[in-house]
Amino acid sequence: MSVAGVTEGVDVAADRRECCDAVVVGSGAGGATMAAELADAGMDVIVIEEGGYHPTTSFTADAGRALRSLYRDGGAQSSMGRPPIAFSEGRCVGGSTVINGGMAFRTPSRVLERWAREEDVLAVDPDALAPYFDRVERRLSVAEQDPGSIGRDNELLKLGAERRGWAVIDNRRNQLHCCGCNNCVLGCPTGAKRSMLVTNVPRALRRGARLFADCRVDRITRRGKRATGVEGRFTRADGRPGPCLHVEAGVVVVAGGSIQTPALLRRSRFRSPSRQLGRNLTMHPNAVVVGIFDEVVRGWHGVHQGYQVREFIDDGILIAAANLPPSLVALALPHHGAALGEVMADYDRMVTAGCLVEDSSSGRVRLVPGVGPMAAYQVSELDLHRVIRGVALTAEALLAAGARRVMLPFAGVPDLLGPDDVRRLFRRSIPRGAMQLVTVHLMGTARMSEDRARGVVSSYGAFHDADNLFVADASLFPGPVGLNPMETILALVTRNAEWLVAHRGRYGI
């Protein structure tokens, strides 16, 4: 079924040449928001998305299909380092907002104040960004869950945390009457999750934007230091390369995320005078902890994440429950063969929880010839201790809620059966190589700062030492935000789009 304004790879029989005011590479949180804002202002916008267009009606509980069609590399990417961190990127129209849990929180004031004070970023303090957070939350229906949509798994984690006397908050998500079917990471089949697929992408299309899906942008064209457009190639359904796409544009906006954005800029031979392009990668290392209860939990009944334990947020640790499909739970467990089969037999009695750690160190993205972008990240000693503490605290909450067994993301470490085991874990030294870490929060790599010796782009996303070139995704962040980054991206890009529209004359559009 064709959608007005959307051209898929299967629709293109020959090379295409297009012209526009602005071309946006990527259709996730940053790209779709930039496209919608510019189109609202009357600009002629083209959006190019490497992944396919998959409407809400196509989403099912088939994890294999979702991994193949919605994720880059089947969701099985990993950073280089010890321990490696497995990470996922969305690769579809709507980007990672199609496959995330929908958590929507404003950037902590302490983070924004640090960016303004230490990173020389303009108009980024909490008061300056408040109107943009307000706008984003209205447009994306950010709210707490409706009664009855929160499952027993989240209730148990909350119960355990409250028994320990810890602070717990209701989650805020970009959702409209979510029924709690817990299919978030495979694509929301009801459209209740207000991802870019059902919000800013359609908004941009209604204002006349054009979207080309199944098209990988190979390079940004340039005339001297001025970006003039992009060149890419469509992909056929069987993976073979198809026709070329050439777009000439007044401005080029790169919004491919913290891995793909620096890679595209480097392929196009743009260099930052700060030498920081691709550096300052932060990842919010996560560790998954699984509690097994005597009672039937059925974690797939209820929303992906209903509460967050914020007791330890000032120490850089965030705890939450987030049920995953059986295949992904099995992947996260340090068990194999018959032992894994025995554990998975208790899937309907599991609470899958985890801790997020705010980075104290950073890594980088390198462009490796013949391979592509590679993320290198070494977890700091401080963050390793935070991971161990976060895992122990998560286990403590699960045991307090009645778990009879808690499985850890540490190879060779026995399961926990009671409080004494948790106390021993707090004191235990876990080797780096024994840790199994994951993340879906990739930030940094093209950080903003007015200081050209420090930042890759300006406070409003304009690339230093290049003309008519902007960045609009989480790579803008000067550092980690310590919680889910989606709303930070949306607010910053909304602000930056407003600035671009106000200064469009200098770019000849």
The first-level CATH class name of the largest domain: Alpha Beta
CATH architecture of the largest domain: 3-Layer(bba) Sandwich
Which class do the helix and strand fractions yield? alpha/beta
Mean pLDDT: 96
Count of helical stretches: 12
CATH superfamily of the largest domain: FAD/NAD(P)-binding domain
- Shape verdict: globular
Query: Spans with pLDDT under 50 lasting ≥5 residues?
Result: none
Radius of gyration: 22 Å
Distance between the termini: 34 Å
CATH topology of the largest domain: FAD/NAD(P)-binding domain
- Based on DSSP secondary structure assignment, what is the total number of beta strands? 22
Beta content comes to 15-25%
Residues in helix, % = 25-40%
Largest sheet geometry: 8 strands, mixed
What would the keywords be for this entry?
509 residues, alpha/beta, FAD/NAD(P)-binding domain, Cholesterol Oxidase, domain 2, 2 domains, four-stranded antiparallel beta sheet
Concise overview:
27% of the residues lie in helices and 22% in strands. By secondary structure, it is of the alpha/beta class.
Topology (elements, then pairings):
Blueprint: E1 6-7, E2 16-25, H1 29-40, E3 45-48, H2 63-70, E4 77-78, E5 85-87, H3 109-118, H4 126-139, E6 142-143, H5 152-163, E7 168-170, E8 173-174, H6 200-206, E9 210-212, E10 215-223, E11 226-235, E12 241-254, H7 257-267, E13 279-281, E14 286-292, E15 307-309, E16 317-321, H8 326-332, H9 337-344, E17 350-357, E18 363-368, E19 372-376, H10 381-400, E20 405-407, H11 419-427, E21 437-439, E22 469-471, H12 486-502
Parallel strand pairs: 1-9, 2-3, 2-12, 3-9, 5-21, 12-22
Antiparallel strand pairs: 4-5, 6-8, 7-15, 10-11, 11-12, 13-18, 14-17, 14-20, 16-17, 18-19
Helix pairs in contact: 1-6, 1-12, 4-12, 5-10, 10-11
